[in-house]
Every structure is written in structure tokens, then in C-alpha cells.
What we know:
This protein is of the alpha+beta class. The chain has helices at 29-42, 78-87, 107-126, 143-154, 180-191, and strands spanning 2-4, 8-14, 17-25, 48-56, 63-68, 93-100, 128-141, 159-165, 169-176, 198-207. It is built from five helices and ten strands, in the order βββαββαβαβαββαβ. Helix 2 crosses helix 3 (107-126). The longest helix is centred in the middle third of the chain and has 20 residues, at 107-126. Belongs to the IMPACT family. This is YigZ family protein.
Amino acid sequence: xxxxxxxxxxxxxxxxxxxxxxxARVADVPAxxxxxxxxxxxxPDATHHCTALRIGDPATGAMTARSNDDGxxxxxxxxxxxxxxxxRDLTDVVAVVSxxxxxxxxxxxxxxxxxxxALSETLDRVGELRRVRHRELLLALPHDRAGRxxxxxxxxPYLLREVEHGADVTFTVAVAESRxxxxxxxxxxxxxxxxxALDAGPRDLYLP
Length: 208
């Protein structure tokens, strides 16, 4: 799944109407609602605050998708915004386009283009990353053997996230779920099968 690289905002003007788009990365619907409420409070004089959100569950693949036209003609604002997010396969994102009416009606087609363009240009500016589900694995081994494995891990395709020195040295390694079998083979090869990986649970990483 893809996510926005950062939160951001961008404004366009069409026939004297201002369209200010705000996008934010969110973990769930309550967080998205909080962003929408914040934007509404920041622009109480706006004619409309139209919204779209997509939030995916990496464990099940289920997607929550919602949109709101906020008083614009049905299907001319929130729906095309949601279509932009869907076409880009973005998740964990909420978008709010606030409109200040400039006195000229744009018609249904004009509104669809305006809201879609405001969001598309904003997404282009903030950039995108991939959200990849990983497992964090713990590897513990004696100090006299840890240096070599640390060197091998740092030169491997796997992400060494933490090194903890105690009675043993414990490495926390993030491995993409799709590569768990590969890592098992890699670990056996580099340790002679003497080190067991303990699963510390899932973690989502955001990668270019």
C-alpha cells in the first residue's frame, strides 16, 4: 500500500473561487475526523469543506473509504476526491478541500475538475511512500559472536533496527513478511543454525 510522504496543503484558484486542499496521514477514522474538525475550525468562513479518506488494514487488506460533498452537488466533490486517492492506491490518508465561493458557478463538470485538481496537485507536492508490513525479529547471541553477525546484518537486505548489550547481545531486525522464509535461510547460513529468531510482532515501515 502507498501513503503520503508528509502532511501538507496547497491552494488553487478557479474563476475567483479558492480551493485549499489539506492532506494528512492518519492511522484510523477518529484521527481522520480530528483532522477534518481542525480544518473546519481553521476556516470557519469557507463555503464548503469537502472530504475523502482511505484507511487500510495491513493485516486483512480491508479498506475503509468515505467521502463527503458538504453541500456541493452530489458526486461533484468528495466522490472525485476519493477517486483520486483510489487511483493512486493511497491508504492512511484524509483529504479536505475547503472552498471559498468566488461568485461564479462552475457547473458539475467544473466542480469535479476543481476538487480533483486541488487534491492531485497537493499529492504531487507531498510525495508518496510505500507502507510495507514487516515482522520484528529478536536475535540473541553471545558477545564474542555478535560482531560478525552485526556486520553481516548491516550488509544484508534486512533492516537492523536496534542492538542491545546485556548478558547477550540482542539484535532487533525488521523483515518484510514476504521475505520471512528467505530470512530464515539467511540466518541459518550465517550462524550455522545456532541462532533462533523470536517473533516480536508486526511493524509497518514506510519506504521510498
